[in-house]
Amino acid sequence: MYRCIVCGDEIGIAKGHALPPQNHHQHAVSQGPIRWQLTVCAVQR
Length: 45
Known about the structure:
Layout: E1 2-4, E2 10-11, E3 36-38
Antiparallel strand pairs: 1-2, 1-3
């Protein structure tokens, strides 16, 4: 699970997939660019 540290939007990413492009969701100009942070890391056993 990733969270945008600017706006709080969260996304889940399946194994082997990349983060969405910068135009996945939009910010107001005053918020600046999207910045993803890993919040939950699932480990397959």
